[in-house]
């Protein structure tokens, strides 16, 4: 017994999401590197509109805008993908949080510090157990041990990802606070450094997120019988 074949829209989102996460890594890397480079140039006088430092600052502003747009697009696709995953999981586990609540859990203060992690682990467990039951019914030995290994591996992977995500989010808030209160050359330098570090902290968070998405997608595909 397997779950119904996931809709084509969900499968497209599952393929698109890792690519968007990799794109996030690229733009965040560029933005972070430019921030740190600009921090070394805040003492350089700007006497002309053709000054390289001024052109670099303008390019950084455009890149920051692009970074925000890519992040927003990734967040939207993530939420739609998770909503679709939750809707499929509810067929097997009605006790799960409703898809709408799983989305709200990302934006409700304090709750968003831990509840999205719990939701993703619960989704993974549903599809892993579904596959385990199917394997056991077919008489495949070791299915219980294999399922437990997958559950443990996913828990460890999500722990690392969540720690990086919270660190990145905290660094972004700190950077925004520093930039808001910055004044003079010293303040500008501190703002660029803080923003650069925060941008670079997105790299491990996004990389580990690709692992989480890929693993959960594989478990859905296994449970639906789309993979051997």
Question: How do the helices and strands line up, and which of them pair or pack?
Answer:
Layout: H1 8-39, H2 52-89, H3 99-104, H4 115-137, H5 143-180, H6 184-223
Helix pairs in contact: 1-2, 1-6, 2-4, 4-5, 4-6, 5-6
Describe this structure in words.
With 228 residues, this protein is an all-alpha fold. The chain has one domain (10-224). Helix content is 78%, strand content 0%. It is built from six helices and no strands. Helix 1 packs antiparallel against helix 2, helix 2 packs across helix 4 and helix 4 packs antiparallel against helix 5. The two termini are 14 Å apart. The relative contact order is 0.16. The model has no long low-confidence stretch (mean pLDDT 85).
List keywords for this structure.
mainly alpha; 6 helices; elongated; membrane; 228 residues; transmembrane; transmembrane helix
Run of helices and strands: HHHHHH
Mean pLDDT: 85
Our estimate of the beta-strand percent is under 5%
- Tally of DSSP helical segments: 6
Find the count of extended strands (DSSP E, 2+ residues).
0
Structurally, the number of domains stands at 1
- Give the structural class: mainly alpha
General form:
elongated
Oligomer: single chain
Helix content: over 70%
Radius of gyration: 22 Å
Largest sheet entry: none
Q: Quote the distance from N terminus to C terminus.
A: 14 Å
Low-confidence stretches: none
């Amino acid at each position: 017994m397997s779950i119904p074949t996931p809709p084509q829209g969900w499968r497209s989102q599952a393929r698109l999401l890792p690519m968007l996460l990799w794109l996030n890594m690229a733009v965040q890397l560029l933005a972070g590197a430019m921030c740190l480079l600009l921090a070394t140039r805040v003492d350089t006088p700007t006497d002309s509109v053709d000054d390289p430092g001024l052109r670099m600052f303008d390019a950084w502003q455009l890149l920051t805008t692009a970074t925000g747009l890519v992040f927003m697009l990734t967040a939207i696709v993530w939420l739609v993908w998770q909503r679709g995953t939750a809707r499929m999981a509810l067929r097997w586990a009605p006790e799960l949080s409703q898809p709408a609540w799983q989305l709200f859990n990302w934006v409700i203060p304090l709750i968003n510090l831990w509840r999205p992690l719990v939701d993703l682990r619960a989704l993974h467990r549903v599809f892993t157990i579904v596959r385990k039951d199917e394997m056991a019914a077919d008489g495949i030995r070791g299915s219980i041990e294999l399922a437990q290994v997958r559950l443990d591996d996913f828990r460890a992977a999500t722990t690392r990802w969540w720690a990086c995500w919270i660190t990145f989010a905290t660094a972004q808030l700190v950077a925004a606070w520093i930039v808001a209160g910055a004044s003079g050359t010293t303040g500008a330098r501190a703002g660029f450094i803080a923003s650069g570090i925060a941008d670079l902290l997105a790299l491990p968070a996004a990389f580990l997120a690709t692992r989480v998405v890929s693993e959960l997608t594989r478990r859905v595909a296994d449970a639906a019988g789309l993979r051997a």
